[in-house]
């Protein structure tokens, strides 16, 4: 053998056993301990990088999605309204189909009856609406006068205006006396109609709303006439497995039934709130009671904020009309009473049929969609949250989100 490590074969060709020294054992132990430590540190660094990258991509994706919702609001809002309207009216079209009415004809009949009813309501309330718009300046003036009387004298702004007028008059008198300044008063212009100016300012938004309403009407008709066509296409995307297709059919049927019942119940309850407010305010002698009924029914789609706004506004209108705080309180109480009675009738049934939605989530959704889409977002916020929760509760992979939205 040579040195510390003998040759594998000696001169006679006989294989020798290799000799392992203590230094070799220490070197192997150090290598075996150092390599896993370095590998685990590298893995942790890569994992943290991947985590930061995924979080950054998720945040960017959310920002891009919200920006797309905002930029495409002129397309998305009519689309959502059309889809919700088709879900709401599908039970009526199905009932007509059960009565041997073809589905396209049934959809046309349902939409025709609804449009006829809306036109009749608009024609009946036309005079009240015009009178309410014409009375807005006088109502504003009376409100300011009442606030000024309540404060016990003119406000600081009114004092400043009066002082400015007196200074202008003094300067004009001084200029005329010295002959250095001649003030020529402009010819009086014929006062323009406040209503005409207001309607002219609203002409462009009204044209936009009319155009979007036509789009919503056409989309709703095609969705109602198509029926379960899109659902069959969606089931076909699941795959050839019969078991998966049956499960998809069951989930879609449950989701459709829940959404249809929810929207139809909300529509019926809001119509009852509007009619009840109309009758109650008319019995109390309120002016434009029909307009208040329509406003109450529409704003009831906004939970809590809508009825509270109607109650406060109607109380102010009653105070300006009757001049009595008792009448104002009575009108406010009646408005809240009508909403409460309808809520006591329908809300227990809704809560027994549908999952509870956290009220904080609904309020956040109202703020978010209101900021995103304006008044349409406020009206669509609560139904969208309820529909999302119904879908999440019936899809296994989305149940954690449904639990987060629930109470």
UniProtKB/TrEMBL annotation:
InterPro entries: AI-2E-like (IPR002549)
UniProt membrane topology term: Multi-pass membrane protein
Any one GO CC term of the record: plasma membrane
Keyword terms, alphabetized: Cell membrane, Membrane, Transmembrane, Transmembrane helix, Transport
Entry-linked Pfam families: AI-2E_transport (PF01594)
Family of this protein: Belongs to the autoinducer-2 exporter (AI-2E) (TC 2.A.86) family.
UniProt xrefs under PANTHER family: PERMEASE PERM-RELATED, TRANSMEMBRANE PROTEIN
Subcellular locations according to the entry: Cell membrane
Name by which UniProt lists this protein: AI-2 transport protein TqsA
Membrane-spanning ranges: 50-69, 75-93, 105-123, 198-224, 261-281, 301-322, 329-350, 362-388
């Amino acid at each position: 053998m040579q040195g510390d490590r003998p040759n594998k074969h000696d001169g006679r060709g006989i294989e020798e056993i290799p000799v392992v020294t203590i230094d070799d054992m220490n070197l192997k132990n150090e290598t075996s301990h150092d390599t896993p430590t370095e590998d685990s540190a590298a893995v942790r660094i890569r994992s943290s990088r991947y985590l930061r990258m995924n979080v950054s991509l998720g945040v960017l994706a959310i920002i891009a999605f919200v920006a797309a919702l905002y930029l495409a609001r002129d397309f998305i809002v009519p689309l959502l309204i059309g889809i919700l309207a088709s879900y709401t009216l599908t039970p009526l079209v199905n009932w007509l189909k059960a009565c041997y009415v073809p589905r396209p004809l049934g959809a046309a009949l349902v939409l025709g009856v609804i449009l006829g009813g809306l036109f009749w309501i608009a024609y009946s309330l036309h005079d009240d609406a015009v009178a309410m718009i014409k009375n807005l300046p006088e109502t504003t003036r009376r409100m300011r006068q009442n606030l000024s009387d309540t404060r016990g004298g003119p406000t600081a702004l009114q004092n400043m205006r009066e002082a400015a007028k007196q200074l202008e008059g003094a300067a004009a008198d001084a200029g005329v006396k010295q002959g250095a300044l001649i003030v020529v008063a402009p010819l009086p212009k014929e006062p323009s109609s406040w209503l005409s100016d207001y309607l002219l300012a609203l002409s462009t938004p009204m044209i936009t709303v009319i155009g979007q309403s036509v789009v919503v009407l056409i989309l709703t008709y095609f969705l109602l006439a198509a029926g379960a066509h899109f659902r069959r296409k969606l089931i076909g995307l699941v795959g050839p497995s019969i078991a998966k297709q049956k499960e998809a059919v069951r989930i879609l049927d449950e989701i459709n039934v829940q959404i249809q019942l929810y929207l139809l119940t909300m529509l019926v309850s809001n119509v009852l709130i509007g009619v009840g407010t109309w009758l109650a305010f008319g019995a109390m002698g309120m002016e434009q009671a029909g307009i208040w009924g329509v406003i109450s029914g529409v704003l009831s789609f906004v939970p809590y904020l809508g009825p509270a706004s109607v109650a406060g506004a109607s109380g102010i209108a009653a105070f300006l009309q009757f001049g009595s705080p008792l009448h104002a309180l009575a009108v406010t109480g009646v408005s809240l009473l009508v909403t409460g009675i309808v809520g006591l009738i329908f809300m227990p049934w809704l809560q027994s049929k549908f999952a509870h939605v956290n009220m904080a989530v609904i309020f956040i959704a109202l703020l978010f969609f209101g900021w995103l889409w304006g008044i349409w977002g406020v009206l669509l916020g609560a139904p969208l949250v309820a529909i999302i929760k119904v879908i999440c509760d019936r899809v296994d992979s989305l149940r954690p989100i449904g639990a987060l939205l629930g109470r």
